[in-house]
Amino acid sequence: MSDRRVTVVTGASQGIGRELALAFAAAGDAVVLAARSRDGLEATATAVTAAGGEALTIPTDVTDIDSVGSLASAVLERYGRVDVLINNSGIGGPSGTLWELDPQDWVDTYAVNVHGVFLVSRALLPPMIERGSGSVINIGSISGKRPLYGRSAYTSTKLALVGLTRTLAVEAGEYGVRVNLISPGFVAGPRLDWVISAQATARGVPEEVVEESFANEAALKRLTEANDVADAALFLASDAARAITGADLNVNSGVVMY
Length: 258
What we know:
Blueprint: E1 6-10, H1 15-26, E2 30-35, H2 38-50, E3 54-59, H3 65-79, E4 84-87, H4 103-131, E5 134-139, H5 152-173, E6 177-184, H6 190-203, H7 207-217, H8 226-237, E7 248-251
Parallel strand pairs: 1-2, 1-4, 2-3, 4-5, 5-6, 6-7
Helix pairs in contact: 1-8, 3-4, 4-5, 6-7
């Protein structure tokens, strides 16, 4: 058992997930790291412990109900509770016009980005409801609010998370559990590099042109950093946000403002 706040982060093996884990560990939380990549999880855990934090790694496939069940069992066996759940697992999905997409790629994108959030939330909400408190934070995207050429699978999953977040906030609110969404912008890192490359190919322009166009779309004329997302998540999980639920918080340097 631990006296620390217990935070579960899915997709914790890299990128935003790793930054979230490091930020919550720095805030004093015991962080549970879940993802499919065992090597990536170990790298995140090493970074957390090197900074003086506490980490528990649990390789998890969020699309598999048994794997998610094992995650929930391991967390409760170790800590006896869950205080914060951050549903960050997600894949970029296929790029191309809708009529060109492989149907299985479409299904696979929904399996991780939407069904995975459902399964993990379903497994970890009961202990929060029993305790009468908790914070669920879903990681969406500005892509759920505006079109991005060739990205119908990904963008539609992220819009689905808006509806899921708002409905779950209503369902869980009477039990003291808050549910919110963060919509990051173009976050610098490997996934954005892949998106830039795919967009450059689709548009027939150099990658530098796409990257510059992404930055110029933002009111702040900058890409978003992973630690910007982590800072917002820390706020939403804190008592300072005790009256905030069902919110969709834009953390995208002003690319979208609704």
